[in-house]
Amino acid sequence: MPLLSVETGLETLSAFKKTILSRLEKRGLSTVGDLLRHLPRSYEDYSVIHPVSGLMVGRLATIEGKVIRLSAGRTYRKQVFLTEAVIGDDTGEVRAIWFGNRFIAQTLREGLRIRLSGRVSEDGKGLLFKTPDYERASRTATHTARLIPVYPEIGGVSSRFFRWQIVELLEKVREIPDPVPEDILARLHLPSLRNALRYIHLPKNEEEWKLARKRFAFDEMFLFQLKALETKALYDTSSAVPISDTESPTDTFLARLPFKPTEAQRRAINDILKDLSLPQPMNRLLNGDVGSGKTLVAATAARATALAGYQAAILAPTEVLARQHWESLSGLFSDEPFTVALLTREYRYLGRDSASKASLAKAIEVGIPKIIVGTHAILQEGIRFHDLALVVVDEQHRFGVEQRAALQARASGLDDGLPEQVPHFLTMTATPIPRTLALAFFGDLALSVLDEMPAGRQPIETKIARNNADRALVYDFIRSEAGKGRQTFVILPLIEESEALEDVKSATAEAERLRTEIFPDLRVGLVHGRMKAKEKEEEMRKFRDCETDVLVATAVVEVGVDIPNATVMIIENADRFGLAQLHQFRGRIGRGNRKSYCFLFPGDGAVENVRLETLEKSTSGFEIAEADLALRGPGAFFGTRQSGLPDITMENLTNLRLVEIARAEAGDLLTADPTLLRHALLQEELRRFEEKIHLE
Ligand code: ADP
Ligand code: MG
C-alpha cells in the first residue's frame, strides 16, 4: 500500500466500494482527511474485561476467551446466514451470534482466543451476545476492551466500518498538516492535530477525548473569529454610499407617529443614522426583546435610505413574517413618496398591487420600489437591485451567527450597480444577548440595544404549572378568558428546527385532544410548519379575526404575527428549552394593553424547575439572558440546529473563555499576517469553513 496523505481520495482505497463511496461523498467525505474529521458522536466503555460468569442481561460487556465451538450456515426456516460461536473463559461459556455476515466464520476458528464486546441479551437457551464486536486477543484493542467510539452513521455506513477504517488510516497517513500555528497550540496546551485525532478516535481514557474535543472546539471558534475579523477588515476598507437624513428628517416622521418612540429606540435610531451618514458601510446589530419595537428602528433606516434615492432590502426569516413587515411598513409609509415592495415565493406586491415575479424583478432592477421586503431567499435568487444601499436582516429569534456571515458575504457580492461599494448592514435579533457574549462573538460590529419596552405594556405574569390540578386550573382560566373574548396560544415547541413528522403528529393530536376533551365549547385552531404558507396564513387570519379561541402552534416563528387580543399562552415541555427561548415564546402575548399570562408546563418527569422560576420572577429579557448564561453557558444561546455551528463546538461553548481566547489569538494572528500569506494551511481551512457555513 502506498503511503497515504490526507488528500488521498477514498476511491483509491480497496475497502471503499462504490456504494459506500457515493454515500460518503453525499456527506462531503471524499478524502482521507475528510474521513479522519468524521468524529465520534459518543463512546461506549468496554474497557473492563468481565468474567463470563459475571455477565448480566442488558449490560454492555467485554469478555476474553477461547472459541470453543463454531458453526455457520443458513438457518432452516428463514434462510438467513447465521454464525454461532461458543466462547469460554475460566468461569463459564456464552454464545455469540451474527447474522448475514459470511466473513466472520472465515476469521474465527475453534481454539482461537478472542475478545468480544457487546450488549448481553438472553433467549430460551441462555445468555448471548447478538452481533457483538470482536477481535483476536493478540491484537491491540480496537473494537473491544476499551473506550469504543460510536460514529454518526451515514446512510447505512456503520459505526463499525468507520472505526475500522479510521483506525487504520490514522496509522498509515504519513503526515497530518496542522493548520493551527504551533505556538498557539503550545500557549493553550492543546494537542497537535495528529494527537487530537488519535485521542478522539482511539482514546485511552476520558481525559484524552475531552482534550481532543477541546482542540476541535477551539479550531471552530478560531476559524469563526478569523472569519469575523476578516469580514470586519473588509468592511473597514470598503466604502458605502453615505445617506444623509436631511431631505425630510426622521424627526418629522417620528413626530407624526401615533405613539412616542422609547428612549432606547431614539438612541438606536441615532446610532444608525450616524452610521449611515458615513462613507463606510454600517455593520450593526440591533438587539432588543420581542415587542421592544425593532421594526420602527429598521423602518427609519430604510426610510432615510429611500428618501436619499437608494434601495433598502428588509429580509425576514419566513414568508409570513416578511408579509407582516411589509404590511407594517406600508402602513408607516403610506404618506411617503416611495414604493414598498414585497417579494417572497408566495407573495409579490409592488406597492399595493400584486405583481408577477418577472415584472417585480424588473421593477427592482430599474429602481422603482425603494424598499423591498422579502425572505432571506431574495439574496439567493439572484435578484438584481438598482442601487441597494441598505440590507436589514430580521433574524427574529435566531441568533444567526452563520447567517450573518453568509448574508454579508452575499450582500457584498451583489450586483448592485455600485461595484466598489457594499450596502450598509443592520441585523436585528430578538434574542437578548448578554453584552459580554455579544462582544465576544460580535466584537467586530456595533451594537444597539433596545432594553426598554414601549410605555403602557403590562408585564406578562408567568406561572409554572406543577401538577395536574394546576393544569386543570389553567384550562378553567383559559375558558374564562375566552368568555371575555380573549384568546390563547398553546405552544408545543419543536426540538428540531425542521419540523419532524412526529412533532406535527403530536401537535395534531394535542389540538384534537383540546378540541374534544378539554374545550368542546371553544374553537381550537392549529398551525404547524408542514402546512403551506397559504394554509398557515388562513389559520392565522382566523385567529386574528377571533374566529378561533385557542391556537395550537408548533414553530413559534410561524406565529410571529401580532395578536393583541391573545392574552394567554401555554408552553408545553417547557423544561426542554433555554430560558431565553422561553422568554421569546411568551413575548408573543402581552402585545395589547391587557394583562397577559404565560403558563409553563414542564414535561412528564421533569424535576428541574429552578431554572423556570427565573421566568416567574423576571420579565426582562436581558436579565433572563444573563441568568441563562450563568446557568448553561453561551451554548444556551445557540439552538444546536440554529447556530450552524457543529455540535462539538456547541458543547464546548459552555466555556466563554474559549471564545475570548480564540478571538484574541485570531486578532493577534491577523495583525501579524493580515492576509494569512504565511499561514497557507490555515487560509485553506478557513475557505473550507466558509463553504461549510454557506451550505448550512
Ligand atoms: P419587535 O421588536 O418584536 O420586532 P415590533 O417592532 O413588532 O417589535 O413592535 C411591537 C409593537 O409595538 C408593534 O405593534 C409596534 O407598532 C409597537 N410599538 C413600537 N414602538 C412603540 C412605541 N414607542 N410605543 C408604543 N408602541 C410601539
Ligand atoms: Mg420583529
Question: Mind explaining what this structure looks like?
Answer:
This protein is α/β, with parallel strands linked by helices and 696 residues long. Among the domains are: 48-145, Nucleic acid-binding proteins (OB fold (Dihydrolipoamide Acetyltransferase, E2P)); 249-450, P-loop containing nucleotide triphosphate hydrolases (Rossmann fold, 3-Layer(aba) Sandwich), CATH 3.40.50.300; 461-618, Rossmann fold. 40% of the residues lie in helices and 20% in strands. The chain is built from 25 helices and 23 strands. The strands form 4 sheets. It has a 9-stranded mixed beta sheet with strand order 13-12-11-14-10-15-16-9-17, with helices on both faces. A 6-stranded parallel beta sheet has the order 18-23-22-19-21-20, with helices on both faces. β2 (60-74) and β3 (81-89) form a beta hairpin. The chain is globular, with a radius of gyration of 30 Å. The protein starts with 17 loop residues before the first helix and ends with a helix.
**What shape does the CA trace take?**
globular
Helix-strand category = alpha/beta
Instruction: Work out the helicity level.
Output: 40-55%
CATH architecture of the domain at 249-450: 3-Layer(aba) Sandwich
Quick check: average pLDDT? Answer: 84
Strand content: 15-25%
What is the class of the domain at 249-450 in the CATH system? Answer: Alpha Beta
Largest sheet composition: 9 strands, mixed
Supply the number of helical segments.
Answer: 25
Count of beta strands = 23
Which spans of ≥5 residues are poorly predicted at pLDDT below 50?
399-403, 409-419, 639-652
Q: Report the bound ligands by name, code or SMILES.
A: adenosine-5'-diphosphate, magnesium ion
